[in-house]
Write the structure tokens for this entry.
Amino acid sequence: MKKLIPLCCLVASLSAAEPSAMIRGTRALGMGDALTAIADDQNVFFYNPAGTVQRTGSLVNFADVSVTASKDAIEFYKFVKDNENQLKNFDDLEQGEQVSLIDEINSKMVGLTPTFGITAPNISFLSGPLLGGFHWGAGLFGQVSGQMGFNPASQLVIPDMYYDINADVIPTVNAAFKIKRLPLIPGTVGLGGNLKYIRRGQINDDRVSVLALDKYEAPPAQMGRGIGIDAGVLYQPTTRWNFALSVFDVRGTTIKYDALDGEKNYPAKPARTEEIKEKWNMGVAWTPGHIGLSSFGIPLRDRLVLAADVRDFANKESKIFADGGLADTAGTHFHLGAEYRWSFLRLRTGANQGYFTGGVGIDWPILKLDYAYYADELSPFAGVSRHPAHRISMTLGFGSGNTVARERIKDSYKKAQEKAAVTNTPPSASPTAESVPKTEPVPTEKK
């Protein structure tokens, strides 16, 4: 009981918080969402603004679309589709059929948390290094995300549903600078920042009767707007190690919502102000040269990268350390990931808040296809409420290979070829008596 009371309060406070304007990458989700120290593509806008310094050339994405559906959302959709006629004609059912349908909703559907997400055809640009190690980028991103489900119902009461949806449009610009020489410190440091404008629409309804689905009119969206700043650092002591720190919504991002007049039989809503809380993330990434002992190991040709993130580690409600040790909420902050590149294939795996993730990507010159299976923790404590989901994305653009990581793979391959050429060169033949040219004796001067 002592743990239950603060748990309920914590869940209530987390659910009431204004959600961040975060578009999670399919690549990242396949890697356990551990991308703070790796992001070198359009993900720099949402994982680490300093990651832009890892680009060796420009990146242009003119259509980036993704769809996310949780396992609960898929089950919810199947149930509604299979029982569509019964739900729409609930009043015409016999009493026994009504009770049976309500029992099935309460036993199978009420406990689900169906979530979904759709991104607009997002566009973005990231430059390569310009004069003095300066990089810049810009993007226009959009996302619709939310959840829906059935409310608990008693017998002979018409079932109803709920939904809560956010629609974001986010124009943003990025600037980053790479410091190549540091006094007394090896390696390089990248500094970056994002300036973003958030235009958000919120729409929700607590109770929608299933009988009204045929002619249901959604309530008008309450519109809000805000300006936010993100910052990031990327330290690379060697070509194999990355250390990163990012801060999103520095000092909090205020979203001001306009007042909403009552219409369509919905009540009016007053103007209000919400805040997206500041989040601190840190990460590390390592590109191993081989697996095993140096003399007997398997060479990896720099194709494998391992990553780890600690996300939102400064959260006062969900702490990592407490009473001299790890807090009960610590497990929800840790993310582990791995990505292996082979030709145009990308194989990914990881652990997101303690849950397995996996993904695969196809990276062609103009077209990129990515898939990720992952699971989020819905409660403040890891291992309590697993919420699995699927995400697929398609990106049209060019320049995805203009990164330090890709160049490292090419250099490693060239070095391997050069080493093999030297190793396979036959030794020069030893000179023989026949091959040595004969020379005439030098006459000596007679006395």
About this structure: The two ends are 123 Å apart (CA to CA). The chain has one domain: 25-259+269-422. The mean pLDDT is 89. The first helix runs from residue 4 to 16.
